[in-house]
Amino acid sequence: MINNNDSNNLDKIVALCKRRGFIFQSSEIYGGLANTWDYGPYGIELKNNIKRAWWKSVVYERNDIYGMDAAILMHPKVWEASGHTASFVDMLVDCKSCKKRFRLDKLEDNTCPECKGKDFTEPRSFNLMFKTSIGPVENTQSIVYLRPETAQGMFVNFLNILDTVHPRLPFGLAQIGKAFRNEVTTGNFIFRTLEFEQMEIEYFVRPQEADKYYDYWVDQRFNWYIGLGIRKENLRRRQHQLGELAHYARACTDIEYNFPFGWSELEGIANRSDFDLRQHSQKSGKDLRYFDDINKERFFPYIIEPSGGIDRSALAFLTDAYDEERIKNDVRVVLRLHKDLAPIKVAVFPLLKNRSMLVELAKKIAQDLKRYFVTIYDDTAAIGKLYRRQDEIGTPYCITVDVQSLDDRKVTVRDRDTMRQERIDIDNLKEYLTEKL
Questions:
Q1: Contacts for 22 with CB less than 8 Å, ≥ 6 apart
Q2: Which domains occur in the chain, in start order?
Q3: Fewer Cβ neighbours under 10 Å: the N or C end of the chain?
């Protein structure tokens, strides 16, 4: 495995993503749009596999979490109630010496925390929310925002969930969706971007049980990443100090990953107290309290929120899986992705692309396997190059159809990680791969 602390490794990963069709610069033919990225054929498969693994873990394998999908555009009063309209507008200044930008209210003694300079531009208002309008005429009545987080859509649907699925505490809502922030500082590839995708849980609990479930979800989310192949030494928990907590939070712990640019947040788990339900109840005039029909009492539940970024997760999984293996005078680049996350599970090649019978058999095998696994057929290069191509994509198993296959009805299956090759009967391929995958 490569050394994560080498900043050059981010360049290697960016180059691999471009070369193998994982991630491209958005609008590249027009010079690109800064801090926006497009996912190519293999990138979208990786991203979908991360989402699928998360959804399976938190929804399908549990009895206490329900999935939903809220709209990106919401009533502007939602953001007044949540505090975003006020707290997401900052007065910012630029240091004329080092060119870094800072919040005016965070400067101590009017001194730049980076270079200790004291010469700043005039303060300017900066809103982190993207603003747009509904209808053909733009005025103050038509203003709406692209959501800066997915959480509020779950809070404003709390009453609908109570009335339809009748859950008992503790229970949660899970959502995967896009969010948008007009960030002051972006960069480090897909780590911090203008639009991003979140996977969030809002877990509603009795106030007296909040601390217990807060600790529970910190452990659950930490172990989820390890279960999908992240090395434990590249993960850590970091609890927020009182001075850095969000206005709604009683506690927050970040799960951080050791990226090539240093330790940074992968996912945050917050105890949001009952702030959100109280705020929306007051602003909307709707009673969002939970009714305990056993103890005959109404109260606002506390909310434990595990919130992770899918794009950040993709970067972490790519970083942790990236490996360079020296073989004689050559370097073999391989993505040792967990099999659940690998974009392609099986690749099928004919040893000789000019032998029609080999090509026909290889295509038939690939087509048959497509019903069970994400499978591709490729004959666009020599067999060695085809193997290397799939190593860089992270494909766990490659199948080669050779001349002998026409006689003994067996093919060669190559393992990505061990490079071990086995002769497997064509009729047993599905069973063999099912067991391996």
A1: 16, 39, 40, 42, 43, 46, 318, 343
A2: 8-82+134-318 (3.30.930.10), 89-127 (no CATH), 344-436 (3.40.50.800)
A3: N
